[in-house]
Design a protein that fits this description.
single chain; Aspartate Aminotransferase, domain 1; Aspartate Aminotransferase, domain 2; 2 domains; 3-stranded antiparallel β-sheet; 15 helices; 12 strands; globular; binds pyridoxal-5'-phosphate; PyrdxlP-dep_Trfase_major; PyrdxlP-dep_Trfase; Aminotransferase_I/II_large
């Protein structure tokens, strides 16, 4: 045992300072606990509970059967880039040339890392709209940048306001990273909100990284893509993908869109680190864009119903919750219970078998909230509301 320990201490010294700086995930311990329990309703996982549309899966299987399993070009299948380009212009009014301005990535996850490493130098400050998806700050840290949280609290309906943005900009600021519709809050930025921050970004010559993975899951009005605003196009990297809209989380396919100079620089990194996105998944994604509109619409309609039902239930039992305008998360405040969000999540899981994620895991503005993914059946949502209500009554 002693020699084992000595060895592992030695090995630890090999770990880089940047890797050491990445904090442990704030939700990992809940998942570990969950695995040891029975009869749990899990509102903790951020993925659709629908199967990938079967015709999409068949397209992936078909590519294997006909031996289309080799690398594609680094940028990704031309047919897929063409389809993405047409989809983006017709759906969101964002114009990207499939030859020079689109790269198919290994999910938005790769896109985030790629985008940050393409534009951030060591010491650059990166504003991270907070709360946010758990990988944002680690991506910045790994690139040598300094993540700075930009609060998007419930009072602002979880949006970025011009005043908070102005407050956080310094001479070192290079990039603003944001995700709307948002994980974990379900908040969205409307046209007016984006126009209000566009001038600030232009005046301070800042870049924008816009993660739009939930763009199809928009329930009120339409999704506005920042790059559709003329003054923002040249300074925006748009990321999107297939995981959420087509229930394809395991296929690992997304896309990176940016002006040609930025895309060319990103391609240099992508070609060495990823080479190309999984080939079979790219064929499946082609089918998704061609023939999965109906399946997607059905899924979005179901999420809308669940959202209405679940949020009404939360408010009824005394957990104030904004109506999320997109994604599939509700982000109620639990402050009235007097518990911290961590304690609330842990006790709710242990005592009433409902798994949720503590809001603080998504950044300081998430403190005092819990994230509930309504990616389970309506029956389970009803039961979850009942159990959460019982838990609150027991306090
Ligand atoms: N960005 C956000 C905001 C997410 O919530 C997620 C997954 O939950 C991702 C990116 C990762 O997406 P992908 O599966 O395309 O890597």
């Amino acid at each position: 045992i002693v020699s084992e320990r000595r060895l592992s201490d030695t090995r630890k010294r090999y770990v880089s300072e940047r890797a050491e700086m990445i904090p442990p995930s704030g939700i990992r311990k809940f998942f570990d606990l969950l695995l040891t329990m029975n009869d749990v309703i899990s509102l903790g996982v951020g993925e659709p509970d629908f199967n990938t549309p079967w015709n999409v899966s068949v397209a992936g299987i078909d590519s294997v059967e006909r031996g289309a399993t080799a690398y594609t070009s680094n940028k990704g299948l031309e047919e897929l880039r063409d389809l993405i380009s047409s989809y983006l212009i017709s759906r969101y009014g964002t114009s990207y040339d499939p030859q020079n301005e689109i790269i198919i990535t290994g999910g938005v996850s790769e896109g985030l890392d790629l985008a940050v490493r393409t534009v951030v130098d060591p010491g650059d400050e990166v504003l991270v709209a907070d709360p946010c998806y758990v990988s944002y700050s680690p991506c910045v840290t790994l690139a040598g940048g300094i993540p700075i949280t930009l609060p998007c609290p419930a009072e602002d309906e979880f949006r970025i306001t011009p005043d908070t943005l102005m407050e956080k900009i310094t001479r070192k600021t290079k990039l603003l990273m944001m995700n709307f519709p948002n994980n974990p809050t379900g908040g969205v930025m409307k046209q007016g909100d984006l126009e209000a921050i566009a001038d600030i970004l232009v005046d301070h010559d800042l870049l924008l990284l816009s993660d739009e993975i939930y763009s199809e899951l928009t329930y009120e009005g339409r999704h506005v893509s920042p790059a559709s605003i003329d003054s923002l196009w040249e300074r925006t990297i748009t990321l999107n993908g297939f995981s959420k809209a087509y229930s394809m989380t395991g296929w690992r396919v997304g896309y990176f869109c940016a002006p040609p100079e930025i895309t060319a620089a990103a391609l240099k990194i992508h070609q060495y680190v990823m080479l190309c996105a999984p080939t079979m998944s790219q064929y499946a994604a082609v089918e998704a864009l061609k023939h999965a509109e109906e399946a997607k619409d059905r899924m979005v309609a179901e999420f809308r119903m669940r959202r209405n039902l679940f949020v009404a239930g939360l408010n009824r039992i005394g957990l104030p919750c904004h109506l999320p305008k997109g994604a599939f998360y509700a982000f109620p405040s639990i402050e009235s219970t007097g518990l911290s969000d961590e304690d609330f999540a842990e006790r709710l899981l242990v005592e009433h078998q409902v798994a949720v994620a503590p809001g603080s895991a998504f950044g300081p503005s998430g403190i005092g909230h819990i994230r509930c993914a309504y990616a389970v059946s309506r029956e389970d949502l009803d039961e979850a509301v009942k159990r959460i209500g019982e838990f609150i009554d027991s306090l």
